[in-house]
Amino acid sequence: WNHRFYRNSNQNRVFDGVGLPSEECVALMVEKEHRHLPSADYLKRLQSGDLDPAARQEAIDFIRKVRAHFSFGPLCEYLSVNYLDRFLSAYELPKGKGWTMQLLAVACVSLAAKMEETEVPLLLDLQVRECKFVFEATAIQRMEVLVLSTLSWRMQAITPFSFIDYFLYKFHDDKIPPRSSVL
Amino acid sequence: MAIAGAGQLNLHESPCWGSRSVDCFEKLEQISEGTYGQVYMAREIKTGEIVALKKIRMDNERGFPITAIREIKILKKLHHENVIKLKESVTSQGAKDEQGRPGKCCPIPINNLLLGATKYSPAVDMWSVGCIFAELLHGKLIFPGKDEPEQLNKIFELCGAPDEVNWPGVSKIPWYNNFKPTRPMKRRLREALGNQEKAPATATTRRKGQTTEITAFTASCRLPPIQSGQAHAQMRPGPNPPLHGSQPPVAAGPGHHHGKPRGPAGGPGRYPANGTNGGFNHQNHGGGYSSGPYPPQGRGAPYGSSGMPGAGPRGSGGSGYGVGAPNYSQDGPTEVLVLDVALT
């Protein structure tokens, strides 16, 4: 019972029955989920070294750090990584410029925070300690726009979070489960 | 109104979303302008379709505005004949300024903190919601003040004057004494709006059962009691534990760390007591909440109180980075949201 609970539940859709997706919606969500995934060959490209898995991991570590630092919610982190992967699978970052990945990570977490968080820090503040590179706000801003357009402005990705309520409901014989069981 | 559930956005969007340039549209005339940017009437060159083109203004410190992100997010969820449809987002190439959406929706500047209250809280949001519903019900602005003193007065006339009974703590709020009404005013909300159930059906009241619900909402529309909710910042632990619990409900005067109210900061002395307009920052239309410490969200959200590190990266680097950051009119990115709305 701390504040955290409230915000998390807010992000994950609290179980109040409101906003519970209908069967039809769930079917649609399943159908559309692929729009919010990296391209099919993304994993292969990472494994083959065509894309740099270490750089990706570093970017994700950074996103985690930011999330922890600002107490962002889990969906924010998930979306950040989702944006990162989708972008990497659709856009060729210039090789040998490590900073571009870092810039991308900052832009992704910034966009995700703007989607989901109540309070979003300034772009400069997002670049928490131990950043190898620190970018000017305008650089991040441009990267944000590149991410937005590369992802076709589909920022409200359908994620596992989208289905949680529905499955909890189903597990409870089509009843709203008591809050205690959700906790 | 079809409101999509969690995570189910983008279900009906066209595949070309986001891939086009603003050059696909020809600007015809500017319709409105606000802190968010400008809205133009435009024609899609290929089809001849008339649309509203909203040019989004970038925020120098926060990048792509959170208000635009949220707007897109919400508009994509809403599908209703009375709600503007977000048709497409486009970017402009080269020179950068950005584009946003139409002035069709929101002539409602109500959701600010009153009287120098500094706690942003869910109650403030409820107030805003109540005002919006009341205006939908009423069919026009409910507090059509030219400036803040006048607007406050309209609020008092309708909702009654705030006192310690209906708003505990109000007398300690910084500008209460400057603005408290000189004569007693009774709450006459129900008289003014409550009989709308008999009024001719409007778009919002057409459906049976909805009317009473909205009226109930209206009736609960009151001055935001500052203690009743917690500031957003308190809903989660920040990096530094928030100290609000030990603070008085109202922070007054210079030097406090809560979000600033609209208008000049610095305490009562700087607010003109005579009700002249000079010190206010009243904007009547379209997203004009500009003076808080958190411009994109307006309303003086208590960013400063959130426990975010005031002296952290920003403290150490802020000034340095600020220098030389090009301003957006030269080279901020450009987004264009194009919305199909009947501009008649």
Write up what this structure looks like.
Chain A is an all-alpha fold and 183 residues long. Chain A contains ten helices and no strands. Chain A is globular. Chain A starts with a helix and ends with a helix. Helix content of chain B is 22%, strand content 12%. Chain B has eight helices and seven strands; from the N terminus they run E-E-E-E-H-E-E-H-H-H-H-H-H-H-E. In chain B, the strands form two sheets. Chain B has a five-stranded antiparallel sheet, covered by helices on one side. In chain B, helix 2 (122-138) crosses helix 6 (210-219). The model of chain B is unreliable at 1-16, 95-112, 197-336 and 339-344 (pLDDT under 50). Chains A and B meet through helix 1, helix 2, helix 6, helix 7 and helix 8 of A and helix 1 and helix 7 of B.
Topology (elements, then pairings):
The complex is a heterodimer of chains A (183) and B (344).
Chain A: H1 3-11, H2 23-32, H3 42-48, H4 53-70, H5 74-90, H6 98-116, H7 123-126, H8 137-150, H9 160-171, H10 179-182
Helix pairs in contact in A: 4-5, 4-6, 5-6, 6-8
Chain B: E1 2-3, E2 25-34, E3 37-44, E4 50-56, H1 66-77, E5 78-79, E6 85-91, H2 122-138, H3 148-159, H4 176-179, H5 189-193, H6 210-219, H7 313-322, H8 328-331, E7 335-340
Antiparallel strand pairs in B: 1-5, 2-3, 3-4, 4-7, 6-7
Helix pairs in contact in B: 2-6
